[in-house]
Amino acid sequence: MVDPDAAPQLEGEFYLHMIKSNIPGVALKAKETSKTVGIDYRGYKPPTPPRGSGVHRYLNLLYEQADGNNFLPSVPSSRGRFHLANWLRGKNLCGPIAATQFRVQY
C-alpha cells in the first residue's frame, strides 16, 4: 500500500504504508480475510494526510509471487520516498494483477 501524493517526493516515489508477502491465493479467492494475513514486512500504517495537503490517493497493489509462497523481500529502510520500481526490480513478481484505490483528505 502506497501514497503517491505524500510530500516531499520525486517522480516514482511514494510513501510506503504496508508490504505483505506470502498471502495464500486460495484465501484471496475465497475472500477469507482471516486467512490473508501473510507476512508483514512493513506493518500497516493508516492514512494520515496532513491538514491542507489536499486529497491523497492510497493504492493497494497485489503482485503474484512467481516463486510461490517463499518470497522474502528486502525491507526498505524508511517509509518516505519509497521508490516502488527500484524495489520491484529483480524480485520475480508478476503484475500488479489487482489493485484498489481510495482517497482521503484531512
Give the SSE layout.
Layout: E1 2-3, E2 13-16, E3 19-21, H1 25-30, E4 39-42, E5 56-65, E6 82-83, H2 84-88, E7 93-104
Antiparallel strand pairs: 1-2, 2-6, 3-4, 5-7
Describe what you observe in this structure.
With 106 residues, the chain is mainly beta. The chain has helices at residues 25-30, 84-88; strands at residues 2-3, 13-16, 19-21, 39-42, 56-65, 82-83, 93-104. A three-stranded antiparallel beta sheet has the order 1-2-6. A two-stranded antiparallel ribbon has the order 3-4. Strands 5-7 form a two-stranded antiparallel ribbon. The longest helix is centred in the N-terminal third of the chain and has 6 residues, at 25-30. The two termini are 19 Å apart.
Summary tags:
mainly beta, single chain, 106 residues
What's this model, at a glance?
The protein has 106 residues and is mostly beta strands. 10% of the residues lie in helices and 35% in strands.
Q: Report the structural category.
A: mainly beta
**Termini separation:** 19 Å
- Indicate the overall shape: globular
Radius of gyration: 14 Å
Mean pLDDT: 87
Pfam families: PBP
Organism: Euphydryas editha
InterPro entries: PEBP, PEBP-like_sf, PEBP_euk
Protein name: Phosphatidylethanolamine-binding protein
